[in-house]
Design brief:
mainly alpha, two-stranded antiparallel ribbon, about 0% strand
């Protein structure tokens, strides 16, 4: 059992490293080998989930390399390995024979191994190792097509932003050693008051940066420059989810700090609201999904701050299945049609019914439409928020309404009937082969089933089992009134958005007739809610691009460059100048030291007399 736990992160990381070393020579076997390793990782995850072992080995200066599988880790190792396997299965049809498949699959396995190390680590020392590996591999994966400058700029932006936030983890580690004498997660809440606040601030900074929460949300938009399988894995079960996981893991620390829990909860709620509005304004399907990821991570961060650990864990699992499915379908359509624009993707769900049906399942789940998965899990989070604060609940509820708006918007475009390819703007000779790889379909269907049925996590028997597994008894549970309110708002919002897009709303005929009798109400809602929301969403999108992105990335980078240039000049003028001056002085002293070496004995005696006289004089002065 202990061997299985060691192998769980090490096997994918080792095989991934070997594929990177072998390079193009391993291209032919890289895909099947990655699938095999991922399947073995799923089996290892199931093994450690049953046995829940703990292992330890010496690491650094008395800090042990300790891994453990508890209730939260059990859920996460299964989620990470299963989603990784599904993503790698779909990615087999993503790359042609001329592309560096060994590099891609090697980086993906190394990325997954780092995440598995993250969710099984028991102290900040090992977490720092996995955190660094995850950051480096995400940079390489986003910039996989490195010959295209805009992709490398996106990778650099993501790397610099997350690395800046990651400095908080180093701050937390130093404060933990000073205030608690240990890096163990279990002992962090027991640190002295001042150090505990420093630990909380550092950990929260690193987690919010990794999960692209405000004010770090802009980097995830650029990360869409990477291949679609990278987006699917990064947004669902690995890097972006790592920050949310860390907040769930260290929720006792947030509570112990006093200020940490409410601060984190409000950051998550506001992110769900404002970045959800940005998602509504998107026309690029991948950008819409990216913004929705940030918003949905906001709900999990909200859960961690509000004490809804069970709800946050349920949402993380359901969102992993939902978002990996949506990104994979977006990648399939991009490969087939050569476009991510929603106007160019009109009607694609009708042309490929099976893939379209899986996308519909994911979109309805993301929207929070009953009875799909995220309807229940999101409402569990809102119930936990209501226990803490009514304003917090209302902001979260508004974020849920926006979830329905951007999800149904995407679904309405891809299912809208078309008369011809010309109407959609397809160019069959230049814009893709319009071929859906057969190997992709089973994985997509599997994820669609997850996006549909994982709402069963909220059923009382399942929720109670979750609580026993996580050790979180006593958390509030949603009642039928709360579920009906959030589900009803999602359906109503979806219906209005679908009509706004120009396609009949996907709702039952009875409800459609009711809405028809209340057209004046619908027009009023359009004027007072939908149109102002769209205006606000577009304004926030422009603000994100022109202010946040420019200030946080471009201006920060320019300032860093100026500082580096000034430091280089200071180094040349001062440090190097001092070194050169010391060298010149040493040379002069060396030349002066040669002058007394004449070879004449009487001069040596004279020098000795002078030296003895000076020594005697010094002795007299000292006395």
């Amino acid at each position: 059992m202990t061997a299985a736990l060691w192998l769980l992160p090490l096997l994918p990381a080792t095989v991934g490293g070997l594929l990177l070393v072998w390079g193009r020579r391993a291209d032919r076997v890289a895909g099947p080998l990655a699938i095999l390793v991922s399947a073995v990782a799923v089996a290892l995850a199931a093994t450690v989930a049953v046995g829940r072992p703990r292992v330890s080995a010496p690491f650094l200066l008395g800090i042990p390399a300790e891994l453990a599988v508890d209730g939260l880790s059990t859920v996460l190792v299964l989620t990470v390995t299963i989603v990784t396997l599904a993503v790698l299965l779909v990615s087999l049809g993503e790359f042609g024979p001329h592309e560096a498949r060994a590099r891609f699959h090697g980086l993906m396995l190394l990325f997954a191994g780092a995440m598995l190390l993250t969710v099984t680590a028991t102290n900040l020392g090992i977490l720092l190792v996995s955190w660094e590996i995850m950051g480096a591999t995400s940079y390489a994966l986003i910039g996989y097509w490195w010959r295209e400058p805009f992709r490398m700029r996106a990778a650099f932006s993501a790397f610099v932003t997350t690395r800046g936030a990651d400095l908080g983890l180093y701050l937390a580690a130093g404060a933990a050693l000073a205030g608690a004498g240990s890096l163990s997660f279990d002992q962090l809440p027991d640190a002295s008051s001042g150090w505990r606040s420093a630990i909380t601030a550092g950990v929260a900074l690193a987690a919010l940066g990794k999960s692209a929460q405000l004010p770090f949300s802009y980097w995830l938009s650029g990360a869409m420059a990477g291949p679609s399988p990278v987006s699917a894995l990064l947004h669902s079960a690995t890097m972006v989810a790592a920050g949310s996981y860390l907040m769930l893991r260290l929720s006792p620390l947030l509570e112990a700090s006093g200020w940490g829990a409410p601060t984190v909860a409000w950051v998550g709620a506001l992110t769900a609201l404002f970045v959800g509005a940005v998602a509504v304004a998107q026309r690029d399907l991948k950008q819409l999904l990216a913004a929705s990821t940030v918003a949905q991570m906001g709900f999990i961060i909200l859960a961690a701050g509000a004490g809804g650990i069970t709800a946050g864990t349920m949402h993380l699992v359901a969102h992993a299945a939902t978002k990996s499915l949506l990104f994979l379908v977006a990648g399939v359509w991009l490969e087939a049609f050569g476009t991510k624009d929603l106007l160019g993707l009109r009607g694609v769900a009708r042309r490929f019914p099976l893939v379209g049906a899986t996308f519909a399942a994911g979109a309805l789940s993301l929207a929070g439409i009953p009875p799909f998965a995220l309807w229940v899990t999101k409402d569990e989070i809102l119930t936990a928020a209501l226990e803490r604060s009514l304003p917090l609940y209302l902001v979260g509820l508004a974020g849920g309404v926006l979830s329905a708006a951007y999800s149904v918007k995407a679904l309405a475009y891809v299912t809208r009937p078309l008369r011809s390819d010309a109407e959609a703007g397809y160019d069959t000779e230049q814009r893709g082969t319009r071929h859906i790889p057969a190997v992709s379909k089973p994985a997509l269907v599997f994820l669609a089933v997850g996006a549909t049925v994982l709402g069963a996590q909220g059923l009382p028997p399942v929720a109670e089992a979750y609580e026993r597994l996580l050790g979180t008894t006593g958390e509030p549970r949603s009642g039928w009134a709360e579920l009906a309110l959030s589900g009803g708002l999602a359906v109503l919002t979806g219906a209005l958005v679908a009509r706004w897009v120009g396609r009949p709303a996907p709702i039952p005929a009875a409800l459609a007739g009711w809405l028809a009798r209340w057209m004046d109400l619908e027009a009023l809602v359009n004027r007072t809610i939908v149109v102002p929301t769209m205006v606000l969403a577009r304004a926030l999108a422009r603000f994100d691009d022109r202010v946040v992105d420019r200030f946080m990335v471009a201006d920060t980078a320019a300032g860093t460059r100026l500082l580096a240039t000034a430091s280089a000049r200071l180094d040349d003028a001062s440090v190097d100048g001092v070194v050169r001056a010391i060298g010149r002085a040493t040379l002069r002293l060396g030349r002066a030291a040669r002058l007394p070496q004449t070879g004449l004995l009487h001069q040596y005696y004279a020098q000795a007399v002078v030296g003895l006289a000076v020594l005697a004089l010094l002795l007299l002065v000292v006395r």
